[in-house]
Each structure stands twice: as C-alpha cells, then as structure tokens.
Records
---
Amino acid sequence: MGSFTLGKYLPLNSCIHKLDPRAKIIAMLIVLIAIFIPAGWLGYGLIALAVISLIFMAKLSLKFVIKAMKPMLFMMVFLLVINILVVKSGTIILSIGSFAIYTDAIIQTLYIVVRLVLMIMITTALTATTKPLDLTLGIEDLLKPFARFKVPSHEIAMLISIALRFIPDLIEETQRIMKAQTSRGVDLKEGKLKEKVMAILSLIVPLFVSAFQRAEDLANAMEARGYAPGATRTRYKVLKMERNDYILLVVSFVLCIALIILAIL
C-alpha cells in the first residue's frame, strides 16, 4: 500500500497537526467550495498556493501528496477522452479525417483535472495531519446542532472515521490477494474475457470475505469494550479552539471571498 496515501495519518510535529480538528474540517469544506467558484486560472493559482503552503507547514512531502493522485489517473484520462468525443466548440487544434480535437475540450478537461488535484491535495492534507479519533470527535461536534432533528451525530462520525481508517487496510489486502493469486498462476492482465472475469472473481470473493471478517472482528471488539450506540458518553479528550484555529478559519474565509470577487470581476 505504499502508493496509497489517502486516509493515512503521519505523526509529525507541526503547527497544522496541533490544530483543532473542527477548524481543519471547516477550513477544508470552505476551500472545497472555493474550488468550484469560477474564478479562472488566477483563482486556482491562489488556491494551489494556499494548499501547497499548508502542506509545507504540515511538514508533508509533495511526493507523499502526489502518491494520492495516482488512483485518479485513469479517471483523468477517461474525462479527457469523453470531452474530446463530446465537446465540439472552439478552434480545431488537431484534425484526422472527419475526427477533430477542439480547444474547448482540452480546456474543460484541464479545469476538471485541476479541481480534482486540488480536492485530493486538501483531503490528503486533512487525513495526514489529523488522527482518526480526533477526526471522529471533530465531525461529531460539528454535527451536534443537528441532534435536535434526531440526527445521530456520533454514529455518523464513527462510520466516517471507520471508513477512512479501513481504506488503506482494504488497499493493502487487495494487493496481498493479487500477489497470492498471481503466485498461483492467475493472470489478472491478459487472457480472454471469460478468463479475465474469473480472475477478477478470484480477487473480489476473498476480498469481500476478508472485509466482512474485519467488520465482524471490529464489532466484537467494540461490543467487548461496552460500546452502545446512542448511549450517553463522556470524553477523556475535550476539544478546545485556540488562536491558531481561528487564524486558519479567517484565512480560508478570506480566500473564499477573494475568489468570489475574482469571479464577479
């Protein structure tokens, strides 16, 4: 799983690691909203500058963040192919017989790719600098105002935290099963359609069995420790916002407002 970094926490000593998880979650949501504001390339440049600065402040390496984008390469290529086939506006940059590639297709693909890259970078920065338990506490506190509408804030936060925690484990398990099946002579890359389907089944079935086994072990462990959904719970760690947390929120709000102004102008 060395090539998969999303959901992986890095225990480093940085000012970003010490921030309140609620502030980091709210700042991430604000930046994600700002990414979809049509402020042009200047707006994306501002967001990229802010995100890269955040990554360096968190003492994360760019190589670690770039690894999180590898699973999205297929989607980016797929979007490029779809836009080339569908978008027929702008000037022609390449023509082969009746087939032509237009500038608007390339530009729209670049916009989508830049948005995806920025979203992956900010999400990776959040999960790499926030412990899963702190992330659960932060999400639970942010969902508390919805408790009056019978929203189970703790259960939702627990589900999100478990999902993020198990993503790297499932990726590792998938790679382990692929190596085991390859050593038994299963070819996952070549062969006829029927052979590929059987090879994929030989991967999916043990992966599901392993996932269900992990879920059962986790449920038994939580039950053995007296976990009861909906029960009143106390905390050993109480979250408290400090000056740096408010600075992060102000900076994210200012960035979002700046992009709105750029979009209007």
Note: The longest strand covers residues 92-96.
---
Amino acid sequence: MRRILIALLALIALLLPLAAECEEGYEEHPMVSEGLKVYGRFYTPEGTEGPWPTVILSHGFGGTWEESKLYIPLFLERGVACYVFDFPGGAPKNQSEGSFLEMSVLTEKQHLLNIIDEVCAMPQVDKVMLLGFSQGGVVTGLAAVERAEQIVGEVLFYPALCISDDGHAAYGEKENIPDDPKAFWQTVGRVYFEDVWDLDLTGMVTAYDGPVLMFHGTNDPAVNHSYSVRAVELFHHGELVLLSRIGHGFAQQTVNRVFPEIVRFMDAVGLTGAEE
C-alpha cells in the first residue's frame, strides 16, 4: 500500500501545543559502539511506568541529538519514550568519540545497528520504532532492513538518498575522490563517498518490508524531494507526505503540522503509549 499526501495540515497544527524544551525527564545513557563512546539520552514519559514504547531518533549530517529537540516532548506527551544520541564521528564536534573524517553512511549504519540492539535489550523498553533525519534517514533505512524483526516501523524525514549521486556528480570516477572531498557544506574524509560509491541507496533502503512514513519539503535545496517520491513507489508499505514550499529541516510550525501524521502512524503500528 502506497500513499503520497500533499500536506495541508495548518488547521491540525492549531490542535497541537508548542513543544517545550526537553531539558528534564531524561537520564544519560551512554553506550560503546565499535570501541567508541556514544553519548546518549533516554527520555521517559512522566506519570507512567515502563516498559515504554520507544522511538530511536537519528540526527543528520554534521548534527547532534539536539536535532530531535522539537519532537521529544510530543512523543513524551503520548507515552512514548525517546532514545537520542550523537553518532560517533557524526559531526566535527559532538559528545561522542570518533573522527568526522572517518565517518560515512556505512559507519553510521553499524553504530545504529549496535544502538538498536542495546536499546531493544533495555528492560524499560517495549516496542521500538526508528526515526531519522536527512543522512540519519538513510542510515535508519539501511539499519531497518537488517533489524526488521526488532522494530515496528520507521519514519524518515527528507532522507538523503542522494549521497551516492552527489559523489558521482562531483568527482565522476571513484579514483578521482580526493582525500578531503566536500559533502554538503563540510570537508569530509575520502571514505564518505568511497563507501557508498557503488551502492544504490534507494534500492537498499526500500528492501525494508515494514511500514514506512516519509516527510519531504518540495523546496528542499539539499535533497531533492524526487528521491522520496521514487522511494515511496518502491516501498511495499510506504507513505509520503510532501510539504509544499518547505525546505530542508523543519521549524516548530512545520513540526506541529506533521506530528498528527506521526501519531496516526504510531497508532497503526501499535506504538502509542498512555497519554499523560
């Protein structure tokens, strides 16, 4: 079943409160992945007892866990716990170990696989859903294929399925990749493009057979929304919400517009907990 929606959700947004800053209600939960320290936080709903349905949120290129700040309170209000973290090497500077120059989609995928395994083993955790932003969306999609039995579904925000194509457009041949290529606005290591050079990221991500909900702005300057349009046609159980005139990364108003669709999706996959 596939569905593409042009999001006209302004009225629904009025039904949602503004997300509060998420500085309370969490405990630090570091992990070790591939020998590197991973900084993580586990947010739990107040007034309810675990185990909780849980969403693992993966930030995008050069980001940190704080990319999830606008979403965490909305999940907590619905009785859903959140695990957020910094990818090792996922930014020039964050709270995890690892070098940004040694990072690629595949190194992040392996870290996410390890994180999924550990979160799923936590006694406080019940069902698990994945959510990823941009590059974190591609990483989430790849990890979902390998951990399909451990998750109930995935939500992908403007997934950066363009990374292989970006490398091809910039350098032409694999041997032409320099030691210090540019990706988006940053200098990365050669491994960044080398690891995905021969990969069909869209084909790999859409091998996941479970339910998928995608969001993408039609004015996205970093990842053209055509990548998500193609992907949703290949997913077995995919939906795509296209947001007219919205760019890359969502502000508070847009988050409030799209979150009712996430709630509907969570209800469908059985992830919604008790509301406070």
Note: The chain has a mean pLDDT of 92.
---
Amino acid sequence: MAGPAESVAATTPPEHRDVTPIDALPSALEAFEAIRARVDGLTPILCLDFDGTLSPIMDDPASAVLLDGIEPVLRRLVRLTPILVLSGRDADDVRARVGVGGILCAGSHGFDVLDTDGQHEPNAEASAYLPHLDALEARLRTETQDIAGVVIDRKRFGVAVHDRQVTDERDLERLWSLVSAAAEAFPMLRPLRGKRVTEFLPEIDWNKGRALLWLLGRAGYRADAALPICIGDDVTDEDALRAVREQGIGIVVGTGSRLTSASYAVRDPAEVLAFLTQLADFLDVRVLPAVDVP
C-alpha cells in the first residue's frame, strides 16, 4: 500500500510569515457568524488535534479521554461532513480514544494514517528510521529510569519524553541534559518540543501541515467545494494551522502571547465543544454536497 510520502510533491504547504499572539485573535465563538458565512455553500472538512483540543491535557497521557459531551457532537458531525483527527499519538491509540466510526485518523504527527476501514498507510520513508527510534527509546528508558515522574512514550514513528510530572527542578535540569545529549547522538531524528513534552521524529521533510494537505486530498478536498477547518492547541499543530491559512480556517486552542498562524482562538476544549456544537447545528439545517472519505 502506498504511503503518504509518495504524495508529498504536490502537497507542500505555502510559506506564511504572518503570525499573531493568541490573545489578539478574535474568538471563534463570538465570530461564528463570520465563520458560518465562509462555510456556507461549501463542505467543511474538520481537522482536529486530540490532546488539548478534544481532550483536556492530562499529567498522564494514558489517562486522556474525550471531554464529556464531545463524542455525541462528533457522531452528529461525521454524518454531515468529513472529519480528520491528526495527533502525535499512535493512529490506533487516537482511534480508540475518539471511539467514533467514520473518522480518518493520523498518528505520529501524520507519519501513520489509519483509514476509516482500519487499514494502515505508514509513511514509507519513515519506516527506515524504526531501528533508530528503537535504539533511542532503549537509551532514554535506561538513562531516565531513576527520574521520578518522567514518562517515555513510544509511538510507532516517534519517542516522546513527557516531563509534566517531573516536579524536582534538579531532575528537570538533568532530564533536559539527557534529552539534549540524545538529540546530538541521534541526528537522524528530529526533536520537537511541545507542551511539557519533547518528541523525536524521523528527520525527513514531513510534518502535520504536509500530512494535513495529503489527508485533505484523501477526504475529497477541492478548493471550489470544500473548506478546511483546523483546530489545534500546541506548537506542534502550527504546521497544520499554517497549511490552511489561505484556503481554510485555523483555530488555536489556548490563551497567552504565543504567536500562532491561526485566524481565530478558543480558550479550551470546552470552547471547542461549544464551537463544534454550533457548527453541527448549522450543518444540520442545510443539505451538503456529498464528499466521501475513503
């Protein structure tokens, strides 16, 4: 089965330099009428992150679940329009946590796609990096085994080091030193810093933005008929928000002065739920052109 990397050439996201502090953005809830006007007449294609977007950020990533109330709204929306979930988690993991059929899931920041029929489409180029990821995982587990609170989370195409539960400052400094040394020892892997997590991924030209554009093609995207709506919370989602900046709508989840390529903001997963509910209510009252998700 062909992997995502084989479609890269035609799906490179444009470069954008326009960024805005999150707190300077209009609220997607307060600006819903403007968003609805852009959606009207088009098929929205939802691209959603999981942690921090559909689920609150948890100290222990293994305990993350959908925010109460989101599942029934996703079940409504998936009958009305295509939905993609693009996460740093493994594709199987995020599919199980979402628990709603008909949604196309991509894990490891887009390196592993899980079709709605359960078939994997891994990035063929990234598969060659699996031995390096195995070696890095073994090294980090050994070196950090006596640091209280650290979580080494192995994904199919990534190794994540979570430090949210590390409370001792000296342990944090030591952990960051070990992570920095590992990055130097494994130059074929790219460290990506998120919210209290550092994730190592294959050092190839692939990210959530490129993966999203490839996935939009799989979801039947046509610029004259569909409108991507991307919602994510972390710096790791910025590539995806940047990718849809011109042809779609980007919504960042959070507050603060961090710069983002999104056009709108919501404060937290509860406001994500409110936005998705408004969107479902709007889509319920109109007939949409059919767009099939493989």
Note: Residues 48 and 187 are 30 Å apart (CA to CA).
